Structures are given as C-alpha cells and as structure tokens.
Amino acid sequence: MSHNKKLLVNCNGFINQKNINYSYFKQVFMKSVTFAALLVFILASCNNPKQADPKASPADSSSTKPKAKFTTSMVDNKIDLSCGMPLTAGIEDTCHYNGKVYGFCSKECKDDFLKNPAGAIKEK
User: Fold this and answer.
1) Against a cut of 0.85, is the pTM above it?
2) Of the candidates 124, 123, 122, 71, the residue with the CA atom closest to the CA atom of residue 101
3) Is residue 25 part of a domain?
4) Are 81 and 121 in contact (CB under 8 A)?
5) Measured CA distances, 59 to 50, 52, 64, 91, 122 (Å)
6) Residue 72, pLDDT score
7) Which of residues 41 and 6 earns the better pLDDT score?
8) Are residues 119 and 81 part of one domain?
C-alpha cells in the first residue's frame, strides 16, 4: 500500500482503497492550527488589564490622588494658623498643643507654628 491511499469502509462493510492527496490535507491542517493559535493569542491579549506604564509622567498619575489622611472635622482650626489658608484645601500635617489638634497645609507651616504656638493662636 502506498502513502497516497486510504482505506475506506463502504456501507456493505467492504474495504475500498482510494487515492487521496495528503499534501492538501497537510496544508488545510497547518492553516487550521495557525488560525487557532492566532485566535487564542488575540483572545488572551484582550483579557489582560492595562498595566501601568513605568515611563508615565507624574502628571498622568494625578487622577489616582491618595485619599486625605486628615479632614477638617478631625482638627480644632478651620484655617492654617501660619499662612491663613483654609484647611478645606487639604491638611498635610497636624500637631497637638494644649489638648487641641491643629491642622496645617504643609510641614513648613507646622514647623513655623511650633516656633511660637501661643503667639500664632493669639494672632488668629
């Protein structure tokens, strides 16, 4: 039997031999496998969530601003005692003085307050 023959069973149960072209089936099989691999690759890449670009500029990450650590309800003052800025813009640091909690817009303002806390409280 040559490689170009295939055994086929007819409806009476007899075995027939027919010439077939194996190179055609090989081409069809390879095209099917290539298409299936490409389809799996496309589907797998669609399911991956976008990863953060490590080269992204800091301006791109501004939309993921961290939640504030302190709120105005946590402090006894409503304005920064050093610079006069409203604390609704954000509280970056706090300190305790005479049983009260004071909020500040920056560490520099807190340091300025700590140089003369009594004077800063009297001024405001």
Assistant:
1) no
2) 71
3) yes
4) yes
5) 18, 13, 10, 21, 40
6) 84
7) 41
8) yes
| pLDDT, tens digit, 9 for 90 and up, residues 56-112 | 555 555 556 566 688 888 899 999 999 999 998 889 999 999 999 999 999 999 999
- Output the six-digit token pair for 117: 């806390």
Same domain, 73 and 116: yes
Alpha-carbon gap, residue 12 to 8, rounded angstroms: 11
Q: Is the pLDDT of residue 52 over 70?
A: no
Give the burial string for 64-101 (b: 16+ CB within 10 Å, else e).
Answer: eeeeeebebeebebebbbbeeeebeebbbbbeeeeeee
List Cα–Cα distances, 103 to 8, 32, 61, 106, 124, in angstroms: 89, 68, 26, 9, 14
Domain region containing 30: 5-46
For tokens 């691999």, what's the residue? 37
